[in-house]
Design a protein that fits this description.
With 90 residues, the protein is an all-alpha fold. It folds into two domains: 6-48, no CATH class; 50-90, no CATH class. The chain is built from three helices and no strands. The two termini are 17 Å apart.
Length: 90
């Protein structure tokens, strides 16, 4: 889920709003919190990303690197790929 607390998700569901894009929609069940499959997939993909500012493989700081950097080195990028922690591109 996107990085909002449960109370905010409940409020959005009660108002019939998508948990990601806030588009009005008619929830079919309590578990139905997204307006589309695309919103659900984007939210899941976002939740899988490592914490900003830290390498996705070893946890080292990414200070001084590009804002969208996910790995501290090629070795960590390859280690994560081999471990199945996602692709090398966002």
């Amino acid at each position: 889920m996107s990085r909002v607390d449960q109370a905010e998700l409940d409020r959005r569901w009660n108002e019939g709003l998508c948990a990601r894009c806030l588009t009005p929609f008619e929830p079919r069940t309590v578990e139905h919190v997204y307006c589309s499959r695309l919103c659900r997939q984007r939210d899941e993909r976002e939740a899988e990303r490592p914490e900003a500012g830290h390498c996705g493989a070893c946890g080292a700081s990414l200070e001084g690197r590009r804002a969208d950097a996910r790995w501290c080195s090629d070795a960590c990028r390859m280690r994560a790929q081999r471990a199945g922690k996602g692709s090398s591109t966002p």
